[in-house]
């Protein structure tokens, strides 16, 4: 069988418990004759980002992908990392695995799960920690307090803590490298803009204490979990945590780690009574594993009765290296011996030199390998009564348990063991019931075979549609839009209002939406809808409908758009025909065509007459229907397939946001809808237009009647779109395209009405200048 093993690190570079287990498990599979391909990550600043090197080791083929996060631009990118998935999926496709066994995805890409599931490859996921529900992985907040309950609990501070070093890193790594290749002025502007957006997002906490970024992450991870065929939980505690998180009990099995027992079957001799009791700590010297609890307890013991041996090196905890300084005075105590990090192969030797292993962790550990290795070596264990630790230690039989962080209780236990050597000998394990690696691997293979022989599809989520309406100082239009949505024939499950302003909306408007988000400032169309999209996804939406505040949506629109998505293969985005509210018989957009070569965009059927069979009907006339059908037939589709649809109304499957991302906020106003649709097309999603669905758009209400702003954003953003969507064309073609866009913008300025010709041309000039210098976002 061809087994793809995915893990975030691999020995000898990585020596953590999950990495060691993944290595031993994969090596045992290879030893049984299975073909093993390991995908793992390394961090080498000297090598190109996402470069892959392949080596053959222990009958396994190992692919190392380099990821230093040098060009990570936002929080979601730090775990989705679609560019990494794009690099490694061709390798996986070439190898053609029968099954994938994932041990961890941190520092890799969650999009690998979607790609594997799309190819029908069964996915087994071993849960080594809580990373799928907690971005810090260990359910500890920034104050190292345990988060109770599955999923996020007041994650705003944690995400902010994650974002701040990310912003700092951006200033000196990815964006700095990008800026270094541009003009000097552009470098400072781009860096400042990116840092501002990230820091603003990091502080955007929701009222219930869950940061919007973390809410979007949890929603994304639930979708990841839906596409995993089966989960393995090494501890019952871990299994229950993920059942409470929402994994169906039938899809998650308690599966203890397996071990090679022979490596720890060593001959031990009882210590002489006069010798100090030899206490050991084996693991990383980090705050969650809490070696300070052992050292503080040791400091209170009788001098000479005990000595402490620590095997492991210090490590920062999510960028916080302060714990290292905190430990220094404790590590300098007499009787404390620091041996540093040791290869895993040396752990059995280290255990022969210990009388007791102490595991003082303050996070709910899964099923620590070191505890089971100590018990196989005949070493009693004193551990925290937390997580899966208490499943391995039977209090008073093979060790003792104490409350996490309780130094006094631990000190009493250690004093007893130092004074009562007969108790110590009684605790020493004489028989071992720990699972063998052979049994573990045979069970895994049986699961692989079962999943291959049965079609395991994730249970379909019930259709749940949320509408997002962004308000910016247009209360009357917003009320009309909200009332129209409330009258939808297909009821909307959520109507989310986004107030893109510092002033709160009226109590009257608040009653028309199920949820209001107060952004505190004008984030532009992109920033506003992104805030609403994240909220909709956090509330479980399977589809998100974006509606401008100056659009009237007839009652049958949602039904028609949903039908367009369901009737078109690979459709991810559906839009309606846009008519003018002031001239309801005139089409403003029947979809959008965009040429990457010329940069030209045009609204299909712009200015064409929209005839209806009766006044007030949303049924197009036979002439309109025939025209639409002819266009659809020409494109071999049941519905029109434009390159994009207008962002004033579009219905989007949540998978599009999960895989293609949100709207690019550099645009602020205009062209972000084209960018979004074409980016989604690059991820395999089709954009469709439902000609039978007609909505009525006022236009220009949020930006005002002055054409200068529209011309400024039009010139700047059209150039931005062309630069973002360009292919591998030549510099001459890119220059010609940019010149054509500038000339087109000038023509628009000359032909526009309102304001003076000079002010209109100045607006275009400012737009071109800001594009050239990298000034994006709002018009400063």
Walkthrough of the structure:
There is one protein chain. The protein is built from 27 helices and 25 strands. The chain has 780 residues and is α/β, with parallel strands linked by helices. The protein has 5 domains: 2-138 and 220-254, Glycogen Phosphorylase B (Rossmann fold); 156-218; 262-427, Glycogen Phosphorylase B (Rossmann fold, 3-Layer(aba) Sandwich); 465-704, Alpha-Beta Complex (Spore Coat Polysaccharide Biosynthesis Protein SpsA, Chain A); 707-780, no CATH class. The protein is elongated and about 95 Å long. The protein starts with a strand and ends in a 7-residue tail after the last helix. Residues 161-210 and 612-638 have low confidence and may be disordered.
**General shape:** elongated
Percent in helix: 40-55%
Number of helices, counting only DSSP H or I runs of 4 residues or more: 27
CATH architecture of the largest domain: Alpha-Beta Complex
Total beta strand runs: 25
Strand residue content:
15-25%
CATH class of the largest domain: Alpha Beta
The major pleated sheet works out as: 9 strands, mixed
**Cα-atom Rg, whole angstroms?**
30 Å
Number of domains: 5
- CATH topology of the largest domain: the name is Spore Coat Polysaccharide Biosynthesis Protein SpsA, Chain A
- pLDDT average, as an integer? 84
Please describe the structure with a list of short key phrases separated by commas or semicolons.
780 residues, alpha/beta, Rossmann fold, eight-stranded mixed β-sheet, 25 strands, elongated
């Amino acid at each position: 069988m061809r087994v793809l093993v995915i893990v975030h690190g691999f020995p000898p570079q990585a020596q953590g418990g999950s990495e060691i287990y993944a290595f031993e498990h994969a090596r045992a599979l290879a030893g049984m004759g299975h073909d093993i391909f390991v995908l793992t990550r390394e961090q080498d600043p000297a090598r190109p980002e996402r470069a892959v090197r392949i080596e053959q080791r222990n009958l396994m083929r190992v692919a190392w992908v380099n990821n230093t996060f040098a060009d990570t631009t936002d929080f979601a990118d730090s775990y989705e990392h679609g560019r990494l998935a794009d690099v490694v999926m061709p390798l996986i496709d070439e190898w053609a695995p029968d099954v994938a066994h994932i041990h961890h995805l941190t520092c890799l890409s969650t999009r690998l799960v979607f790609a594997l599931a799309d190819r029908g490859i069964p996915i087994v996921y071993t849960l080594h920690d809580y990373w799928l529900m907690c971005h810090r992985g260990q359910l500890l907040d920034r104050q190292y307090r345990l988060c109770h309950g599955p999923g996020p609990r007041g994650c705003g501070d944690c995400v902010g803590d994650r974002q701040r070093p990310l912003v700092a890193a951006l200033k000196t790594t990815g964006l700095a490298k990008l800026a270094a290749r541009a003009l000097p002025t552009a470098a400072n502007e781009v860096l400042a803009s990116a840092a501002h957006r990230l820091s603003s997002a990091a502080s955007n906490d929701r009222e219930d204490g869950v940061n919007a970024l973390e809410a979007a992450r949890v929603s994304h991870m639930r979708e990841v979990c839906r596409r995993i065929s089966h989960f393995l939980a090494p501890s019952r505690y871990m299994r229950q945590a993920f059942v409470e998180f929402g994994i169906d009990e039938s899809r998650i099995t308690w599966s203890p780690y397996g071990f090679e027992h022979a490596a720890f079957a060593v001959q031990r001799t009882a210590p002489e009574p006069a010798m100090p009791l030899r206490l050991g700590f084996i693991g990383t010297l980090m705050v969650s594993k809490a070696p300070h609890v052992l050292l503080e307890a040791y400091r209170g013991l009788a001098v000479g009765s005990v000595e402490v041996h620590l095997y492991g090196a210090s490590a920062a905890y999510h960028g916080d290296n302060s714990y290292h300084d905190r430990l220094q005075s404790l590590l300098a105590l007499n009787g404390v011996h620091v041996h540093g990090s040791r290869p895993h192969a040396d752990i059995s030797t280290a255990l022969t030199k210990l009388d007791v292993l102490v595991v003082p962790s303050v996070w709910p550990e899964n099923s620590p390998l070191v505890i089971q290795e100590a018990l196989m070596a005949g070493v009693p264990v004193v551990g925290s009564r937390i997580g899966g630790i208490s499943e391995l230690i039977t209090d008073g039989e093979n060790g003792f348990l104490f409350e996490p962080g309780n130094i006094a209780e631990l000190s009493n236990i250690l004093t007893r063991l130092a004074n009562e050597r007969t108790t110590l000998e009684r605790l020493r394990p004489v028989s071992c019931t720990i699972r063998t690696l052979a049994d573990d691997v045979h069970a895994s293979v049986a699961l692989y075979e079962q999943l291959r022989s049965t079609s395991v599809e994730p249970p379909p989520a019930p259709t749940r549609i949320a509408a997002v309406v962004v308000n910016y100082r247009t209360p009357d239009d917003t009320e009309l839009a909200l009332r129209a949505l409330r009258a939808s024939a297909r009821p909307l499950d959520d109507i989310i209002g986004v107030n893109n302003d510092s002033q709160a909306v009226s109590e009257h408007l608040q009653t028309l939406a199920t949820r209001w988000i107060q952004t505190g400032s004008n984030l532009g169309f992109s920033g506003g809808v992104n805030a609403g999209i994240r909220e909709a996804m956090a509330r479980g939406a399977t589809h998100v409908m974006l509606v401008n505040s100056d659009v009237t949506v007839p009652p049958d629109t949602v039904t028609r758009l949903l039908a367009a998505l369901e009737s078109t293969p690979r459709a991810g985005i559906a839009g309606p025909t846009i008519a003018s509210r002031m001239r309801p018989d005139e089409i403003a957009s029947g979809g959008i065509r965009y040429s990457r070569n010329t940069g030209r965009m045009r609204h299909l059927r712009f200015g064409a007459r929209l005839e209806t069979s009766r006044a007030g009907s949303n049924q197009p006339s036979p002439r309109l229907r025939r025209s639409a059908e002819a266009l659809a037939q020409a494109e071999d589709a049941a519905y029109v397939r434009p390159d994009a649809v207008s962002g004033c109304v579009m219905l989007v499957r949540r998978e599009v946001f999960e895989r293609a991302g949100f709207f690019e906020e550099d645009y602020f106003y205009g062209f972000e809808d084209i960018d979004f649709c074409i980016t989604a097309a690059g991820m395999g999603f089709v954009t469709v237009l439902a000609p039978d669905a007609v909505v009525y758009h006022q236009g220009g209400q949020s930006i005002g009647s002055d054409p200068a702003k529209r011309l400024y954003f039009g010139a700047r953003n059209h150039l931005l779109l062309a630069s973002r969507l360009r292919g591998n064309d030549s510099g001459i073609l890119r220059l010609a395209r940019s010149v054509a866009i500038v000339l087109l913008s000038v023509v628009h300025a000359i032909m526009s009405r309102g304001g003076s010709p000079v002010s209109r041309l100045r607006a275009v000039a400012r737009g071109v200048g800001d594009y050239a210098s990298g000034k994006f976002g709002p018009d400063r």
